Amino acid sequence: MQKEIETKDPYQTRRLWEESHKPPNVSIHLDETTIDKFKAGYEEDISFQTHASDPAQEKDSWKAIDRFFKDEKGLLFFRDADFHARLCVPKSMQPSVMKEAHESAFESAHAGPEKLWSALSKKFYWPRMKKDVVRFCVTCDVCQKTKPSNFNRYGKLSPHSIPSQPYESVSLDLIVNLPWSEGFNAILVTVDRLTKHAQFIPTTTGLTAEGFASLFVKHIACKFGLPTSIICDRDPRWTSEFWRSVAKQLQTEMLISSARHPQHDGQTEIVNRQLETMLRAYVAEDKGSWSVWVPLLEHAYNKRVHASTGASPYLLLLGFEPRSPLDFLHDSTSDSSKTISRSTQSDRFVKTLGMHRESARRAIARAQVSQAKSYNKDRRTINFEAGDLILINPHSLEWVESRGEGAKLVQKWIGPFEIQQRINENTYRVRLGDNYPGNPVFNIQHLRRYIQSPREFGDRAALPELRALKPAREEYEVESIIGHKYDKKKRSTVYLIRWVGFGPSHDSWQTTRDLRNAPELLNEYRKRVGLN
């Protein structure tokens, strides 16, 4: 613990030794209670016990620099290599010092480990200080929930198995937030994963599981049979209730089930974007006419050659391209083909269709390898076990503060929650509790490991628990109305509500209909701010 002084000039060496043994002028402004805590902590901390009782050791060696010394109040100091005096902090006081520096808005304002270490190491000292500072920062509840992740995102792409025949596996998704058109405000998009054949089915966002079952039976089961695999998002409509409705409509008592993959589906998302792009080109003058264009755009989409298969969905599904007005300008059917027997034509058709589909499967496999290589380049693998604590990206949950004004200032992660079940390497079931009534199944890319603060760090700052957008209870009591704005999507005025028993962090925007049980408060507010 001591540093030897070596110079060529013995007189200079002696002067340095004398300077090193002079206690630096330090000024510590602590109350008597805190000073007593420091002194008591020195006696209990084995790292400082010896130095606290006899700070100057090896006094017989005039070349030795005394690293430790006491001031007149009995506080122990450590002299670093630059002769700076740093206050020694016993183990019992270390959490308080780190807490003061880390959580104070005036000091480091929840800075990272390096910045906190830089601030503390100039003034304080204890053994393994940097290691403790890092642990303190990475276990901070506020930091974990408010800071974006600088690490590579979790979850590598695991391509789905390639189907062997059309409509063996389908992906489903909804395009929502559309203007009303002929009684519809959404589009159900279905895509066959082998041929890429798509169906664009006008529907409504209020459709129940039974309603979706009707669309499924009409547009998929009755046309192409029941798929063995469905890839969809985490929409709660895709539950056992959906399959019971399908069985009921097919008038069968046999248990119908299918492998459901509740995860991000890039294929259908790409089709959604293409459909939205096509719609914009035709509904600019009348956005409420989109449902009229959907059947025509579905036909146009299925005539296009798909990049991953090298053929059009129609060719792979039907074995031919449906005739279009352009075909009447040039009939490509040769006279020689008309003389071939029907049996020969049939054999050739089946063989050609099989070749096209096999070629499509090989092309899809090559595309999947390329996509996985590109996707996984900046990804890392991580496994969660049942019982692990995690945080969830707020965009995956509907909660009050994630919408409207101030959305930029919401925390980056919500939780902690407990892992309930590992479904596959990229999908987990999370125990959300009653406060979040949504679907509990999440893709790993929306999760982040939560590190609990050790008991030795004591009580620390933590963000308050947030309330779901759809409350667990049927009704909350309105305390006051504190603001209003015009919601373009809802085309009406919404009001910012303060709830009885909740603070400002739980304020939420509600419609006039939501406030039907508080007419007096609503009328009083409208009168006060001059709303008609």
> Going across the major beta sheet, what is the strand order?
10-9-8-11-12
Count of domains: 4
Oligomeric composition of the shown chains = single chain
Q: What's the CATH class label of the largest domain? A: Alpha Beta
CATH fold descriptor of the largest domain: Nucleotidyltransferase, domain 5
- Look at the structure and name the CATH superfamily of the largest domain: Ribonuclease H-like superfamily/Ribonuclease H
Largest sheet: 5 strands, mixed
Continuous helix count: 15
Fold and architecture overview:
The strands form six sheets. The chain has a five-stranded mixed β-sheet with strand order 10-9-8-11-12. Strands 17-16-15-14-18 form a five-stranded antiparallel β-sheet, with no helix packed on it. Helix 5 (113-121) crosses helix 6, helix 8 packs across helix 9 and helix 10 crosses helix 11 (290-303). The chain is an alpha+beta fold and 532 residues long. It contains 15 helices and 21 strands. It has four domains: 3-146, Endonuclease III, domain 1, CATH 1.10.340; 169-328, Nucleotidyltransferase, domain 5 (2-Layer Sandwich); 389-457, SH3 type barrels; 478-529, OB fold (Dihydrolipoamide Acetyltransferase, E2P) (Beta Barrel), CATH 2.40.50. It is elongated and about 105 Å long.
